[in-house]
Design a protein that fits this description.
Blueprint (H helix, E strand, L loop, with lengths): L1 H7 L3 H9 L13 H14 L5 H14 L7 H10 L28 E10 L5 E9 L5 E8 L5 H16 L8 E5 L3 H4 L1 H10 L1 E5 L9 H13 L9 H18 L10 H11 L1
Parallel strand pairs: 1-4, 4-5
Antiparallel strand pairs: 1-2, 2-3
Helix pairs in contact: 3-4, 4-5, 6-8
GO molecular function: nucleic acid binding
InterPro entries: HTH-like_dom, Integrase_cat-core, RNaseH-like_sf, RNaseH_sf, Transpos_IS3, Transposase_IS3/IS150/IS904
Organism: Oceanicola granulosus (strain ATCC BAA-861 / DSM 15982 / KCTC 12143 / HTCC2516)
């Protein structure tokens, strides 16, 4: 009996109970309150089909707190979603051999901004290309630009820089140097762009060649934009999509739970830190 139990990886008492029929069949664990939470979870999953159980938990608790109810543990949400086949399918991918050992995240807002581009195609063949600036601490998209069937120019980047400085500091120049991290695209490394950045108080810095991990925060937003918005939304033509992009970015800033922000959205995180400052 001992050898069989060790081979199967179970205890001898469990094996003995199974053999003599005294073991009770396990039933699915549930709480009486699950019935009240399930419709809320189902509605959130229908509205956010790309969200996993942790982000669904964050949205659910945000809704429950607004109603004056107690929040729900993420393990309970996982159990309910698993029982009703609402979990996302697991995706297994190999990690790249080249890993970035630097640290992009900063300890405070307005220390380092990151910028990158995105691109996707509409159903009629129109190509949308855009760029954005995101804060490396609070993850808010500060400014962005999008164009149709063209590339992002240095002028677009400079307009985006100026808008970001005005929104964060209410002036045409930063009160202290702010790093501006980007790749080595021509619109970023152009002489006019570098000079304009210095005039605004931004210090341009660039990622090493073939090292997208060095701008991981910006890369993560591009992935989120495509996964949670582009891939689940009809994209008939450029005119329709350009009207949607603004709403996507506002929704991300206002509502998207971020694991690096303790499952708060960027603006929730900023508001919480502003209140305690």
């Amino acid at each position: 009996m001992k050898v069989v139990a060790e081979t199967l990886g179970v205890s001898r008492s469990n094996l003995h109970a199974r053999l003599n029929g005294s073991a009770k069949p396990r039933r699915r664990y549930h709480k009486a309150q699950d019935a009240a939470v399930l419709p809320l979870i189902t509605t959130l999953v229908a509205a956010r089909p790309t969200y996993g159980y942790r982000r669904i938990t964050a949205l659910l608790n945000r809704q429950l707190r607004a109603q004056g109810d107690s929040p729900v543990n993420h393990k309970r949400v996982y159990r309910i979603m698993k029982a009703h086949n609402l979990l996302l399918a697991r995706r297994y991918t190999e990690r790249p051999n080249l890993t970035h050992k630097g640290k992009v995240v900063t300890m405070r807002s307005n220390i380092r901004w990151c910028s990158d581009g995105f691109e996707f195609t509409c159903w009629n063949g129109d190509v949308i290309r855009g760029a954005f600036i995101i804060d490396a601490h609070d993850r808010e998209i500060i400014s962005w630009r999008a164009v149709v069937n063209a590339g992002i120019s240095g002028s677009d980047i400079r307009d985006m820089m100026l808008e970001a400085v005005e929104r964060r500091f209410g002036d045409y120049r930063t009160p202290h140097p702010v790093e501006m991290l980007s790749d080595n695209g021509s619109c970023y490394v152009a002489r006019e762009t570098r000079i304009f950045a210095r005039q605004l108080g931004l210090r341009s810095c660039y990622t090493p060649v073939k090292s997208p991990e060095s701008n991981g925060i910006a890369e993560a937003f591009v992935k989120t934009l495509k996964r949670d918005y582009v891939h689940v939304t009809p994209l008939p033509d450029a005119a329709t999509v350009l009207r949607l992009v603004a709403g996507w970015i506002e929704d991300y800033n206002d509502n998207h739970p971020h694991s690096g922000l303790k499952m708060r959205s960027p603006r929730e995180f900023i508001a919480a830190h502003t209140a305690t400052a």
